[in-house]
Design brief:
This protein is α/β, with parallel strands linked by helices. The chain has one domain (9-228): NAD(P)-binding Rossmann-like Domain (Rossmann fold). The chain is 38% helix and 18% strand. It contains 7 helices and 9 strands; from the N terminus they run βαβββααβαββαβαβα. The longest helix is centred in the middle third of the chain and has 21 residues, at 88-108. The mean pLDDT is 89.
């Protein structure tokens, strides 16, 4: 069951300048359920102007309820790397504090649904710093009382990033071969196109069920394919 009959909804997108965020935006623009899409970024993006999209250049250190005015659903693809951030503290600020603060304020402003791009293996009890921070974010947003909380846990994201990541480029080159031998419990670690993740996030936003839901490789692929094959409205 979907909420396709619920038109006139407003979506807030965090992280539209990134790989998954940009592809999530593309999927949102193809979804007639959302007649208003608000992008919250540090600076305006060089994208084609459209009446459905509003860009707000904001500071994530100074978010306010007004930034989420009228929001129904929030999609978050905020994220960085420790190399780009410069330290674990700076990484945590972008990957945990910013999206968590946004989620709290959005909930206070009346948003009912939160869709988060996290990571396979996310666990608040993990020894690995990266996986622990992802798990902590999931755990804390889960306490905020959203009617629907969708957590996406992809592994290696396939797609062209703006910044160069040599290790990821090397992995992407061998991913098609590696994926074929990753079966059973290892399927969740298969590399996946970022476009599939973006589409799947929007597809989850159209679902009517209530609660917290976690999607890994197989579920993400299924939702992404369903969204790709859905008729244009």
């Amino acid at each position: 069951m979907t909420r396709a009959e619920e038109y006139g909804k407003t979506a807030i997108l965090l992280g539209a300048s990134g790989l998954v965020g940009g592809l999530c935006l593309e999927a949102l623009l193809k979804d007639a359920v959302y007649t208003r899409i608000v992008l919250l970024n540090r600076r305006a993006l060089p994208i084609e102007a459209t009446p459905r999209v509003t860009q707000k250049a904001i500071s994530f250190d100074r978010l306010s309820p007004g930034d989420f005015s009228g929001a129904h659903d929030v999609f978050s693809a905020l994220g960085t790397t420790i190399r780009i951030a410069g330290s674990q503290e700076a990484f945590r600020k972008v990957d945990v504090e910013y999206p968590l603060t946004a989620a709290r304020i959005a909930r206070q402003a009346g948003a009912r649904q939160f869709v988060l791009c996290s990571s396979v293996g996310a666990d608040a009890r993990a020894r690995n710093f990266y996986l622990r921070t992802k798990g902590e974010l999931e755990q804390e947003i889960g306490k905020l009382g959203f009617d629907r909380f969708h957590i996406f846990r992809p592994s290696l994201l396939l797609g062209k990033r703006k910044e160069s990541r040599f290790g990821e480029r090397a992995m992407q080159a061998v991913t098609p071969l590696v994926n074929t031998v990753m079966v059973g419990a290892l399927r969740r670690y298969r590399g996946i196109p970022a476009a599939t993740v973006g589409r799947a996030m929007v597809a989850a936003g159209d679902l009517s069920r209530t609660g917290t839901f976690i999607y890994e490789y197989d579920e993400i692929v299924r939702l992404g394919r369903e969204k790709l094959g859905s008729p244009k409205r």
